[in-house]
Fold:
Amino acid sequence: MKDSERLLLDNQLCFALYSTSLAMTQLYKEPLDAIGLTYPQYTIMLILWEKDGVSLKEIGGRLGQKSGSLTPVLKRLEADGLVVRARGIEDDRTLTIRLTDKGKALKEEALKVNSCIVESCNFSPEDIHTLKDQLVSLRKKILGN
Structure:
């Protein structure tokens, strides 16, 4: 690539990732609105559907976010009756997040969201898996993992 082309916006990996991330989040908006979740709420619910009763610290680690930025999202999920937040018995500094029955039941609706996204991408399941693996590998390299 010529030096004159290296700084073109369309040649930037960071911009391709950023603009694709924005487009993907917009793609999720309508199906998530239908089940009453925002994208940040959805990511937390995905973690809890995988394993209920997770600490706030663990959720933050999985999402690569600080717990302080997750607190407003969790408070909203709690206000909507999807989760409960409980302080630790031995250590009241720990906060465990658990699904309510309503939160557990929402998992079935979320399967529809997932199917809708797969259809919209128009990729084979194998292509989606390969792309996801490449992105995870890139993230690990960036973070030095």
Q: What stands out?
A: Residues 3-143 form a domain with the Arc Repressor Mutant, subunit A fold (CATH 1.10.10.10). The chain has one domain: 3-143.
